[in-house]
Design a protein that fits this description.
Number of domains: 1
Largest sheet: none
Distance between the termini: 25 Å
Strand content: under 5%
Shape: globular
Number of strands: 0
Helix content: over 70%
Length: 374
Amino acid sequence: MSASPLTPVAPPHAATATTTAVAPLRTTNRNWWLRMAAHTLCVLFGQTVATLLGRLYYNKGGKSVWLTSLVETVGFPILIPFYLHFKPLTYRQSTENDRIRTNPPSVFILLAIYVSLGALQSLTGILYSVGLFYLPLSTFSLISTMQLAFNAFFAFFLNAQKLTPLIVNSLVLLTISTVLLVLQSDSEGNQVGVSRKRHLKLGFVSTVIASALYSLGLSLTQLSFQKVLKGETFNMVLNMIIYQSLVASIVTILALFISGQWNDLGKEMASFELGKIMYLIIMICIAVAWQIATIGGVGLIFEVSSLFSNVISTLALPIIPILAIIIFHEKMNGMKVVATVLAIWGFASYVYQHYLDESQPTIRSEVADEVSET
């Protein structure tokens, strides 16, 4: 996906050296694809497992939306060993970027970025937890695909991304998919129970707003790298994620204490259908799964871009409804099937447009190589 450097034409006596250089190039390209596959699997596995376990927690008696939003970010210390390992490797690159920047950001500006994005992440996690609590898993996942539509909207204004026909097609399809799910909300009451049926619309609204805030946070993060940090090294990305998760965890913990739900966690654990030990195991596994997804997302950001990382993270959302039918025996009526097909279609349009955007530099590079050889 990254453009290959231009190379001059080798003279006749250098043919052997040129042929010898092909093997390392192919090895490097193969290693890049292996890293991309590993990062993608981490994102898909982590996000899918975390979402399914969150649904299991609610199904078996869990009720704390503050706790489920907290475990999304509180596992960030797992990233610290990666930070310490890769920091020496990226120190030189960061130093070179600092030399290029005439006015590096001050500590106050960095603190403002981390605090604002961390608070936004905390609010997003809380709203997602509310949506997952009140909605069937399949409906929740399909509505969450709206984050791609919001991502295109915010990227258009904040990151100068063009709205191509494929992007517009994706926006329309994802919007229609969400509208269909709202129209068939009455039948959802049988799947979530009578006590939650009254709050279905709250679940819809919370999930849509969370999708918008998630995409806004991603675009603001990309804007921070472009305008303030003036670079996107592995070290910078890890700094952003660790400090942002720290702020989000602190905000969520404060909300957990202020709301008074902290006092109810002991009773909730005791009445959990699978027992106290499984309660703790589920919470720990959710935290670890989210961090696995984060590690994969960091790798995709470093290898390609933040927008591409968001596309891959959204790839799991059309998969989750199928798993919800198999694991939790959720019903899949005709309206939801149509909504699923439209969501996958919209996602495919978005991914194909991203593929075209990423392939253009390579095509231009190949044309330049042909002209140079001529």
